[in-house]
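[step 3/7] fold_predict: job queued, chain A
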Amino acid sequence: MAAPQLKHTVERDRRALGGWLALALVVLWFIAAVAVFLSAGPPDESFEGSRALPILSAMLMLAVGVFSCFGFFTLEPNEARVLMLFGAYKGTVRHSGFHWANPLYARSRGAAPGSAPVSAAKKLFEGATQRKLKTKLSLRVHNFNSPTLKVNDKRGNPVEIAAVVVWRVENTAQAVFDVEDYESYVQVQAESAIRSIASLYAYDHGEEREVTLRGGGDEVSHELAKELGVRLAKAGVVVDEARLTHLAYAPEIAPAMLRRQQAEAVIAARKTIVLGAVSMVEMALNELERKDVVKLDEERKAAMVSNLLVVLCGTEEAAPVINTGTLYS
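[step 4/7] structure written:
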């Protein structure tokens, strides 16, 4: 039997009553309550029965007015509030400003679950310290800096990697109802995506035209953002950017890899020096032959090439030997 598929919650835009209009109505309601109370007249034993009804009505109106005051709320730009009435989703208010809504709408949606189960007594004493999940959400852009993770690259080498993820809430209904805690969800999925992407690429020195973690910054970042976008879509979160902020070999292999990099750098430098020295020797022989400065046989040419290569490719200064005899002595 197949597992039931999770249905994505559809966000519904909801307009709340203007706060200033509601405030004026509440003030008028309080004035009416005072007027009803004053209509009962002064205390008099002969009118006790007739005064009871206006006084009770005024007290009831006063209680309703006080209760209505709990419906006021404000939203800053790029903020939204999810309206929930006894567990039912009624819509999302996205418009900034001063608003009024049904005071029975929930202002929180429980507490963030802990990472490990705790006893009922511990919940009783530590419940006040748990982070409450509010129905008011920030739609602003967030940055998440992942901790430095130790993962294995494509070749199995342990590397340390970290990334920064730029994200924002796009669908408030999915963020609230489709995942337990969308902020925690972003953190966990971001670390999981970083590990997954790191295992697809070699740290460096890949095959011909192979993208590596060290050399393929833009492509790796694009794939990481794509992977995160797929993972976080179910939470109503959009990833704007994802980039690596730290990349290094793990400490246990870093010295060996450093020696390898140094050796490769020395080999590359030697290769450049040899290519340049050969070009200079070739140029020297061609110039001597073209200007007919001296006639050299093949043996003398070989000796001259050997001497020039020693001078040009040597790591120390060459000590010249002055020949006071003939060229062939």
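[step 5/7] annotate
The first strand starts at residue 17 and ends at 18.
The CA atoms of residues 274 and 313 lie 6 Å apart.
exit 0
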